[in-house]
Amino acid sequence: MVERTTTSQGVNGRVVVAERPADIRNVVLVGHSGSGKTTLVEALAVAAGAVPRAGRVEDGTSVSDYDDIEQRQHRSVQLSVVPMGWDHVKVNLLDTPGYADFVGELRAGLRAADAALFVLSAAVGVEGVSGATLALWEECARVGMPRAIVLTHLDTARADFEDMTETCREILGGGRAESILPLHLPVYGPKGADGHRPVTGLIELLTQHVYDYATGERLETPASEEQREQLEEARNRLIEGIIAESEDETLMDRYIGGEEIDLATLVADLEKAVARGSFHPVLIAAPPPEGARQGLGTVEILDLITRGFPTPAEHPVSATGSGGKAAALACDPAAPLAAEVIRTASDPYVGRLSLVRVFSGTLHADDTVHVCGHGQGDNGDHDADERVGGVSAPFGKQQRPLPQAIAGDIVCVSKLSHAETGDTLSAKDYPLIIEPWSMPDPLLPVAVKAHSKADEDKLSQGLSRLVAEDPTVRLEQNPDTHQLVLWVLGEAHRDVALERLRSRFGVHVDVIDHRVALRETFATQASGRGRHVKQSGGHGQYAICEIEVAPLPEGSGIEFVDKVVGGVVPRQFIQSVEKGVRAQAARGVAAGYPLVDVRVTLFDGKAHSVDSSDAAFQMAGALALREAAGAARINLLEPISEVHVVVSDDYVGPVLVDLSSRRGRVLGTEPVGLGRTAIRAEVPELELSRYAVDLRSLAHGGATFTRAYARHEAMPTQLAESMRDKAGSNG
Fold first, then answer.
1. What pTM was computed for the model?
2. Which residues of 582-664 form beta strands (DSSP E)?
3. Which of 437, 431, 426, 432 is nearest to 358 (CA)?
4. Is the pLDDT of residue 200 over 80?
5. Is 529 helix (H, G, I), strand (E, B) or coil?
6. CB of 134 within 8 A of CB of 167?
7. Integer Cα distance of 24 and 407 in angstroms
8. What is the spatial distance between Cα 367 and Cα 391, in angstroms, rounded to a whole number?
9. 10 Å Cβ neighbour count for 406?
10. Helix (H/G/I), strand (E/B), else coil: 516
11. Are 483 and 514 a contacting pair, CB within 8 Å?
12. Is the distance from CB of 66 to CB of 56 less than 8 angstroms?
């Protein structure tokens, strides 16, 4: 790895460039909101010399800051990449939002990374380890992603290192708690006036070295007798954990037999176990004092990343080539190009920017590449050749130009107008597609309309670009309610999406009440007479028809039957009556919702030789249906969804009670392992509009759900009357 000095803008003017995939580490930082991920990235960047001092999201100086929305909300809302150099290795740190609404950015970071740092606040305790953190830990485990844990906020009064470590072992370790062990113990300074002892250093358990960070510099000090006694039990436990994961099966017998295991052997086995994803070390961190260079634990974390985490070559990815044949991607700069768009954004000066992870080959500025994907924005499913603009290294709001990006690296690419998040970039003569990563289904509906005529003209393009940038936003033009609906992950996600629509694409929208697609049907049989007769002034109109309406089973639609005899309604006007009936059915007969599942039988009528017309009989058909509806009992039908909730066992009771309060019918529950239960229920869609928000609050982030349309069924009488009254007052 080399550092090249450039004249481009950037902190310290340096661009870290890796010349081999083996010299790259891609690490994603994940953890609950407020755990200190961005602060840790800042501290690591300062320790590595990437920036002279830590910045803040609040004042826009954060190296992770890319969007002014983050400054206003005082939290990260999107993925950002911070490259730095350490021990001749290029480290790409991917900082992800901790708030659940931005899990799409988190999943993009997981796709781009080869290892993960779980950043957990010791001040939060068990709440920060359970729920969403546990689910994410298990997700990483399923794909074998190496993980380490970093504990932050140890300097707060409620923090307890030992308790937090044991909590991580019990919850995240599951049946293998011995795979989660600390590499260090904190060193506490003298008590302050509030009785709290700040953390000023750490003890390395393997080497038994003590490092004092109190001054902002890492200074080695001799271990006191008290510290040696303190670390003995933890050190023995760590050694046993490392030996248990060693590939040398004789090592445990030698250790039990009293043999002193060589330190170099232990370190090597530790690094191998971490890289394999079978051992998960616990580290500690704190930001540096104001103006200092090194925060607590930053050197140790960077050492673990460069020596223990795997290289991109150890994280294989497959693609599909022409003819649908699977192709393993070689992490080799000389191989054919295969890269994936991790996220897309619009820069006011550069235009569209694509964050790209190169899995194979080398991506050069001004290359012509093949873009292939399954996008849902402007382009839909698409295949196109497109010329790459500039290639650059992202660093906060700045882009540092690069001539190329080799396999394993993460860079920004400009001017890819067709590429969307999840698309594959490949050599134009060797097209490939990498299967996109899974995204959560957005389940919070937000109905919008253009604020003005000028906004209406730009609305379609703005929304499609928003969806192309953020795959966790889904756009729906509802054919029943005629509403434009954005489906998002939560209220914070909604706010960010609407703000981006305004600030990036210049489109202002108003949020309106979301309507659920109800239906109407006849509960009883009834007859109706439609009479449309006007014979004063100008051409006359004359049409009379008699109909009977009867209910049909669900899913039957509108069935029209002709039983006219004797030609009382001429043949050419039978279809006119049917048109009028169907048009009125689409408009509804009670509360303005479409009428379904009825048989309409035309059995009698009258016509005039001169004044009857197609329009007159259409009007008569509509009037006849409305009169029949007035003589019958009309049911309002509401859509029912089958809901599948997976929740921590601790919150099964409250979730079941909540489903019952939503008029839900529980179909069954079953354990799904690791302390979680799956609940199946049928719930009216009217009760699910805010369920994505309410469930998260109810289960403290420890639940997920999916929904699927099941059927329409009759609404309770009292609620149906309320809906009719509301429709009448609006009408």
1. 0.85
2. 598-606, 634-648
3. 426
4. yes
5. strand
6. no
7. 9
8. 10
9. 23
10. coil
11. yes
12. no
Q: Which of 464, 504, 451 is nearest to 375 (CA)?
A: 464
Query: E strand or H helix at 328, and its extent?
Result: strand 326-328
Q: How many residues comprise the chain?
A: 731
Count Cα neighbours of 42 within 13 Å in the Cβ-side half-sphere. 22
| 282 touches 216 (CB < 8 A) | no
Confidence of residue 448 (pLDDT cuts 50, 70, 90): very high
CA distances from 363 to 102, 436, 710 (A): 29, 20, 47
Residue 346: strand pairing partners: 352
- In contact, 61 and 68? CB cutoff 8 Å: no
Find out whether 629 and 523 touch, Cβ atoms under 8 Å: no
Question: Please, what is the Cα angle at 112 between 53 and 74, to 5 degrees?
Answer: 45
| % of the chain residues with pLDDT over 70 | 92
Give the C-alpha separation, 434 to 326, whole Å: 10
- DSSP-derived letter for residue 509 is E
> CA-to-CA distance for 403 and 400, rounded, in angstroms?
10
Rounded CA-CA distance 185/211 in Å is 11
Tokens read off for 696: 């998260």
Please give the order of strands across the beta sheet that includes 24-30. 80-86, 89-95, 24-30, 115-121, 147-152, 280-284, 180-182
Q: pLDDT tens digits for 158-191?
A: 888 999 999 999 889 876 888 999 999 999 888 7
Amino acid letter, residue 529: R
Beta bridge partners of 522: 634
